[in-house]
Amino acid sequence: MKLIWKDYTFDFSQRTYVMGILNVTPDSFSDGGKYLNKDHAVKQTLRMQEDGADIIDIGGESTRPGAEKISVKEEIKRVVPVIEALANKIKIPISIDTYKSGVAEAALMAGASIVNDISGLRFDKKMPEVAARYNIPVIIMHIKGAPKNMQKDPTYVALIPEITDYLREGIRIARNAGIADDKIIIDPGIGFGKTVEHNLEIINRLNEFTGLEKPILLGPSRKAFIGKILGNLPVTERLEGTASAVAIGIFNGANLIRVHDVREMVKVASLADAIKNSLAPPFIKKN
After folding, report:
1. Which among 150, 228, 143, 225 has a CA at the least distance from the CA of 189?
2. Any catalytic annotation for residue 152?
3. pTM metric for this prediction
4. Domains of the chain, CATH where assigned
5. Which one from 223, 238, 276, 285 is the annotated catalytic residue?
6. Catalytic residue among 2, 258, 285, 286
7. How many other C-beta atoms are found inside a 10 Å radius of the C-beta of residue 2?
8. What are the average pLDDT values for consecutive 10-residue runs of the chain, which has 287 residues?
9. Any catalytic annotation for residue 6?
């Protein structure tokens, strides 16, 4: 399975790819406010590239549980200057993390080349057309509800089948809009309308999503379920838990991982790939 667009080629049969998170928001659950300054955001992106990130995912609106919406104008104001500053400075692709077509189009015009939509193309009916027009990859994520209410007692009759149906419908929407079949990525949406138990089950049964025949993105990084399982640990102490979730996710079929701690998770992914494929990790130098 390959993803090819512009000057980029991701061959998922070779290894797991790493997406680094850059939140240019004042209120994201993990790093809100740290990269609102454009220069700080650029430095962090260059650092993640140096640490081995394959994609940078830039978001201007927090989608943490309970988050309030912001305007398209405000979101563009946050993300576009950063994307413009990075477009000619980095060699890896930029993803725009938004569910708003107006933000996506502004970001794509500024230099982004992937759309990461937490709504799976549902919240903004114009999003599929925008993505199709630019002929770029789209990440279709599952969410139950909306960020403001998604964690208020989320329930499912059959978790994995319901998520699968949602993703399958997202793929259908993408195809009908003209998005190329080989440019669709799926994400089961860890933490987006899920309990601790739901998140664990998704990671444990991740290989069941391979039936959709799309690359699978997994985003467990620093999420609340990790903190709860490990004794209510704060965000700053969830590195090892994230590493465990990432490694198991890769072994169960993840093709991309979306993470905050790029340097550490590149190593985790390399070792997980090596075990899965019985190969020597590429970062170990041979005598």
Report:
1. 143
2. no
3. 0.93
4. 2-277 (3.20.20.20)
5. 223
6. 258
7. 11
8. 96 97 75 70 96 97 85 96 95 98 98 98 98 98 93 95 98 98 98 97 98 98 97 96 98 98 98 86 54
9. no
